[in-house]
Write a structure and sequence with these properties.
It contains 5 helices and 3 strands, in the order ααβααββα. It has 100 residues and is of the alpha+beta class.
């Protein structure tokens, strides 16, 4: 369902992770490993999401650590959409299994 509104697959995966787990913090390579996407694409999307205010970052040595900006104007709404979207997917999958 989110794919209709957020067309970038990588951006969608990042938003789901950070909205679902608002205390999650990681660097580009850690996130790349988690969501199984190319670090270059992830870095580009992280920069975009930081620029609009959804994410914040801090330097730890030579590494940039990204975390959710819980004060982002529409954070609670976005989090709610992500959770509802995942619940709808789970219900759809259960129905498909039940029909088989």
């Amino acid at each position: 369902m989110l794919d209709v509104f957020i067309t970038s697959r990588v951006r969608r995966k990042i938003i789901v992770v950070y909205a679902k787990y608002p205390d999650f913090k990681t660097h580009v390579r850690g996130l790349a490993k988690l969501i199984k996407e190319d670090p270059g694409n992830i870095q580009r999307e992280l920069k975009r999401l930081e620029k609009v205010g959804f994410l914040s970052s801090e330097k730890q040595g030579n590494t940039k650590i990204y975390s959710t900006n819980k004060h982002f104007a529409i954070f609670k709404e976005l989090q709610s959409i992500v959770i509802k979207s995942q619940q709808a997917q789970q219900q759809k999958a259960k129905r498909a299994v039940g029909d088989a």
